[in-house]
């Protein structure tokens, strides 16, 4: 089971993208949830690929591997197949793995699953810390972790193996361009890595370059 935190900053406040679960026949009815769901075991889908696929299916947002950061993973015994319901080992029928990922919000979401989710909205994380009971359990239990990891994201993302080689290449280029100071160097803007075509679908979206004014107008 995967959970994705798409985050941005508006007026120096950290906000994350969530939608309300509106299907009364499914778990956690009316709770706030982010993109993410079940890995497809029949296709041997791993959780990294799962979160990329689910984000596109639920919001038509394409994630970049070099910006996707896993901040939490836990396996627990459960009596239900697709729900982490901790129990004793002797009572368990399944082992459920839960994972939480971070990725910057870089394009507006689309409301692709109106039968299960309400519209996507941005919520200030400081408000969610006060009203955690409105969140699905995995978010409710880890909201402090999410808050801290978002604040440390810019440094933690540099430690990903996928970025290490490119970071070294950029540093070498910087040494050859002495007029470019460290203050003008932004790794996340400068790096350009190709994502394997089989991992994400191609999408052309005229709204992919959206200003902060859009987010204020739509979500605040």
TrEMBL record:
UniProt cross-references to SUPFAM superfamilies, sorted A to Z: Nudix (SSF55811)
Recorded superkingdom: Eukaryota
Family matches, as Pfam families: NUDIX
Record domain Nudix hydrolase: where: 1-158
Protein name (database record): Nudix hydrolase domain-containing protein
Organism: Gigaspora rosea
């Amino acid at each position: 089971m995967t959970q994705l935190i798409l985050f941005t900053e508006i007026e120096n406040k950290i906000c994350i993208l969530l939608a309300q679960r509106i299907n009364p026949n499914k778990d956690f009815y009316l709770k706030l949830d982010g993109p993410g769901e079940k890995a497809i075991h029949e296709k041997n889908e791993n959780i990294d690929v799962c979160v990329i696929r689910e984000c596109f299916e639920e919001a038509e947002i394409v994630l970049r591997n070099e910006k996707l950061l896993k901040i939490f993973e836990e396996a627990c015994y459960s009596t239900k197949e697709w729900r982490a319901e901790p129990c004793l080992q002797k009572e368990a029928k399944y082992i459920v793995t839960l994972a939480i990922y971070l990725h910057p919000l870089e394009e507006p979401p689309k409301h692709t699953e109106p039968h299960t989710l309400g519209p996507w909205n941005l919520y200030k994380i400081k408000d969610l810390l006060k009203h955690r009971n409105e969140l699905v359990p995995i978010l409710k239990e880890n909201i402090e972790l999410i808050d801290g990891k978002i604040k440390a994201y810019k440094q933690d993302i540099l430690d990903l193996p996928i970025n290490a080689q490119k970071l070294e290449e950029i540093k070498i280029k910087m040494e050859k361009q002495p007029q470019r100071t460290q203050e003008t160097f932004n790794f996340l803007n400068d790096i350009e890595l190709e994502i394997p075509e089989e991992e994400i679908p191609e999408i052309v979206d005229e709204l992919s370059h959206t200003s902060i004014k859009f987010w204020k107008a739509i979500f605040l």
